[in-house]
Each structure stands twice: as structure tokens, then as C-alpha cells.
Amino acid sequence: xxxxxxxxxxxxxxxxxxxxxxxxxxxxxxxxxxxxxxxxxxxxxxxxxxxxxxxxxxxxxxxxxxxxxxxxxxxxxxxxxxxxxxxxxxxxxxxxxxxxxxxxxxxxxxxxxxxxxxxxxxxxxxxxxxxxxxxxxxxxxxxxxxxxxxxxxxxxxxxxxxxxxxxxxxxxxxxxxxxxxxxxxxxxxxxxxxxxxxxxxxxxxxxxxxxxxxxxxxxxxxxxxxxxxxxxxxxxxxxxxxxxxxxxxxxxxxxxxxxxxxxxxxxxxxxxxxxxxxxxxxxxxxxxxxxxxxxxxxxxxxxxxxxxxxxxxxxxxxxxxxxxxxxxxxxxxxxxxxxxxxxxxxxxxxxxxxxxxxxxxxxxxxxxxxxxxxxxxxxxxxxxxxxxxxxxxxxxxxxxxxxxxxxxxxxxxxxxxxxxxxxxxxxxxxxxxxxxxxxxxxxxxxxxxxxxxxxxxxxxxxxxxxxxxxxx
Length: 472
Ligand code: NAP
Hints:
Blueprint: E1 6-9, H1 13-24, E2 29-32, H2 36-44, E3 52-54, H3 58-63, E4 70-73, H4 79-88, E5 97-100, H5 106-118, E6 122-129, H6 131-137, E7 140-144, H7 147-160, E8 163-164, E9 167-168, H8 178-207, H9 212-222, H10 231-241, H11 264-275, H12 280-293, H13 295-304, H14 323-351, H15 357-363, H16 374-384, H17 395-417, H18 423-435, H19 442-453
Parallel strand pairs: 1-2, 1-4, 2-3, 4-5, 5-6
Antiparallel strand pairs: 6-7, 8-9
The structure holds NADP nicotinamide-adenine-dinucleotide phosphate.
């Protein structure tokens, strides 16, 4: 019997769909799952009648694969990956390739690439985005590792990934853990945009008195604009239209207001803090999830701390696409991308990843959760200026900021006056206002630091390092 082209470990939501994708694209496959009953279930179900066979253990799995073996590991990130590597390694031969497609921490990937390359196996850390549907139909893929290892999987991933007008949504990202670093930042941007849309929903509902269908109509309208046409706006519309089959009310209102997280948002913020990259909109989104999780405390505080009447305020009309609210959503979304791209740029320099910013924008245009028309503009901006320090100063984006800043300001002011928390909108406003302010008040911070700790300061009017005895 001929050997299979491709192996998959881990028949979770993603693995199951990815192996069906590979098979559909002509790669006969072998699957292994820790719990064998799941393998049987899959082979008798969605995998039936396909060029996919199962293996009971990792030795049998490896034996069924052609060389060099291309093995995608789609399991829970963390120690599970190390344990699979340890178990499978004795059966692998020189040149075989393991691809970790899960959401691994990029420093773990950095270590694994080094360890496995020493054993002459290839190791690719590949971020994959697209959820279950994307995994099946074509996700965005972010593979990092050695270029040789990437070359060995290029034909596979180019066929499996989403396709957009200028090519497949996969490219060689760079060495070491760069693929997982880029996926981490992708997820940080995703956190930002999800929270931005949730804030728009909260304003429409609480300050505008709108119902699910009306808000969904606004989302549908926004999804037709170049600035907001995106997968996340599209699914927000869908979520807002669904009714509870029991009473016909908006289903979203029945959902507990606690948002989960699995680590990538946190890692984005931690990396940003370590690298000195400002990501306030993304941080605000992460913090909003943390705040959401302390539901009991919020409920008791609600009865203790006085609130005031929620008077409606001017957020535009359906006819004008809720113009100021749209301004806020557009600018906060741009800020999420701008902060993520800046983090990538700084991380690339620090870690020696040599990230190609236009290519990253290109592979995010299809398949992934943050795909949007804006990414075409982002690709273009970095193509025109690969050294662009921040998206906000690229001509098209600078025009958007100038045009929409009054709308964002009105929305934040309206929300603040009514006690509605708008973490992403307000931090975006601060971010833009800080970024466009030539002189910030940190001169006073420096004075205080010098006063209590003799930390010294620089002057704007002459060169040198200065210290003053402030309290004399
Ligand atoms: P998952 O729920 O994260 O993982 C399920 C799979 O992991 C099962 O096959 C499970 O085997 C296996 N597994 C768990 N611990 C293991 C261990 N110690 N040794 C061997 N196998 C183990 O599944 P998923 O949602 O498909 O995600 C897979 C990876 O992709 C994760 O890193 C996830 O963060 C990432 N990811 C997920 C999505 C998504 O939309 N779900 C999108 C992008 C990336 P058993 O059946 O035996 O329990």
C-alpha cells in the first residue's frame, strides 16, 4: 500500500477540518489522536470514503507516511506539544518535519526549533487562523522556522490556505518562533476589534435603545463600506440577528457577559510591554475581558455605586450609517491594526525575524478572523514604505484620522457622560491624541523622578544630562 502524503496529530475542531482540507487538495493522509475512539468516530463519519486512514499509535502513524514526513500537530498548546515531540521523536528520521499548528507561545517554538533542528528534524511553528470553517475551506497560515523546512511544506500549505486576488494566504514568515509571534499579534488585533464591535453594540443598545435587528442592519451597512468590510463585522451582524427559539428574543441578550481567553491576547500585551511597543487599544480589550470575568463583584458594585439616567445621545441615524459611531469603530479598528503592526515591526528588529510587513498584511486578507478590506490598504501602505513607523502616518490612514477624530471624540464624550465604559474607544482616542502631540507632559514626570531619585533629565534647549536639587 502506498504511503500517505500528510500526517495529522489531534482530531480536535481544527485538526479534523484541516485534514479534510489537505485530502480535498490531493494529499492522502494519516490521522492519529490520543483517544483512539475519536479517530474511529472520525474515520466512520466525516472522514469516511476519503483518502484518510487512521493509526492507533505514533509508531504506526509514522510508518504510514512517505518521506520526508510532513506531520501537522493540532493539539492543545503547552506541555502537550513537548510530550508528543518526545514520544514521536524515536520514530522520526532525518529530514522529517513536525509542524505545530496550535497557538503556542513563540518562545516555546523558538526553543523547539533549536532542539529539533539539532536532531536534524525540521520544526515549523505555524500560526493558523480561520476557526473551524477556515480550517476546512482555507485558513490563513503563518509558518516560521528554517527556510529549508518551509520549502518542504510550501506545496502543501499553498494549496490548503485561503486564496486572495494576489495569491495564497501563506508565506514564509521567518526564522525561529516568528510564525507564532505573528499569530499571537494577529490574535491581539482580533481581541481589539471584537471589543470595539461590542462597545458599538453597547452604545446602540443602551444609549440608542436599539434592538438586535436594528443593530444588525447597521452592521450590514458598515460591512458594505471599504473601511469596515470584514469578517468580524459580518459575524457580528449574524450574531445580532439570531433569536432564542424559546421566546423569540435576541439570543445575544441571554448570553452571560463573561468573555474567555486562552493566552494569545495576554502574550501580545506582555510582548508589547517587554518590547516598549504601545498597544493601548489591544490592552484595553484584554482588560475588558478580565473585567467581564468578575461578574459577581460588578453586580454588587452596581447596587452600591450610584449611577445616573442614560439619556440618549447623538450617534447618527441609520440613514447616515450612524456616522459618529462608525467613525469611532473605524478609528479604533485602524488603531488595533496600527498597534499590532508596530509591535510586529519592533519585535522583528529585536528578535531578528526580518518580517515582511506587506506580506503579513497580504496573508491576513483571506481565511483569518481579522480579514478585512482595510488589510489591502495596510499592505499598500507598507509596500510603499517598508520603514513606515506607524500606520497612522501613512497618507490614507492619516486622512481617515483627521476626518473621523471629531466623531470618535463625540462618541467617547457621550459615553463618558453617561457612565458607559468604552475601554477601546477611549484608549484609542488617548492613543491618537498622544501620538499627534509633539510635547507631552512627561517633562514633569522626569522632573519628579529627578527630584526624588536623582534620575537626571535631558533638556530641550541644550545637549547633556542634567540634575537639579529640586527641594533646596
Ligand atoms: P483543542 O480543544 O485545543 O485540542 C484538542 C486536541 O488536543 C484533541 O485531539 C486532544 O486529544 C488533543 N490533546 C490534548 N492534550 C493532549 C496531550 N497531552 N497529548 C496529546 N493530545 C492531546 O482543539 P482545537 O480547538 O482544534 O485547537 C488545536 C490547537 O489549535 C490549539 O492550540 C488551539 O489554540 C489552536 N487553534 C484553535 C482554533 C479554534 O478556532 N478552535 C483556531 C486557531 C488555532 P483527545 O481527543 O485525546 O483529548
